[in-house]
């Protein structure tokens, strides 16, 4: 299943990031789990800060979106009782802190979408929004939230 695919890809889901405000990382409602926006934390810190197209390159943004998506999968998997209980990635919302003249948000959020496809295959194909914003919490360059469907 998905846990085997993670091993094949050499990906280890990170520990669920502690909330930085008054919320929980993920909530289950019916057969769906909604994650809070996940920042690209690695071992409790952000590898880069600032706006994509200024302090952060689009390539760095792509890599950070990938990390944020893995953090979102970890949050969903914790509520689902494991990654193998995730049946489908339904929706991805990606936010990119963007310099005023930067319009490459879809390419940055591809970092999230592509890693979800690598892990979940056809079940990783999802609807998506890639939104440019002026600023994100803690000066993070990207934030990703996902909605997943879980096994009954």
TrEMBL record:
Membrane spanning residue stretches: none
Any one GO molecular-function label of the UniProt entry: hydrolase activity
Pfam entry (one): YjgF_endoribonc
Domain Endoribonuclease L-PSP/chorismate mutase-like: 5-140
Gene3D superfamilies: RutC-like
Keywords assigned: Hydrolase
Entry's EC annotation: 3.5.4.-
The protein's name in its UniProt record: Reactive intermediate deaminase TdcF
Source organism: Corynebacterium urogenitale
Phylogenetic placement of the source organism: Bacteria, Bacillati, Actinomycetota, Actinomycetes, Mycobacteriales
Annotated gene: tdcF
């Amino acid at each position: 299943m998905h846990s085997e695919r993670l091993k094949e890809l050499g990906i280890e889901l990170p520990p669920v990031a502690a909330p930085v405000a008054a919320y929980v990382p993920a909530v289950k409602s019916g057969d769906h789990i909604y994650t809070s926006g996940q920042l690209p934390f690695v071992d409790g810190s952000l590898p880069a800060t600032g706006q994509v197209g200024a302090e952060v390159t689009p390539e760095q943004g792509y890599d950070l979106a990938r990390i944020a998506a893995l953090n979102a999968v970890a949050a969903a998997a914790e509520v689902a009782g494991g990654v193998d209980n995730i049946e489908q990635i339904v929706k991805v919302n990606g936010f990119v802190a963007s310099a005023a003249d930067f319009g490459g948000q879809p390419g940055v959020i591809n970092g999230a979408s592509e890693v979800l496809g690598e892990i979940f295959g056809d079940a990783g194909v999802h609807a998506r929004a890639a939104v440019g914003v002026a600023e994100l919490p803690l000066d993070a360059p990207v934030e990703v939230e996902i909605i997943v469907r879980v096994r009954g």
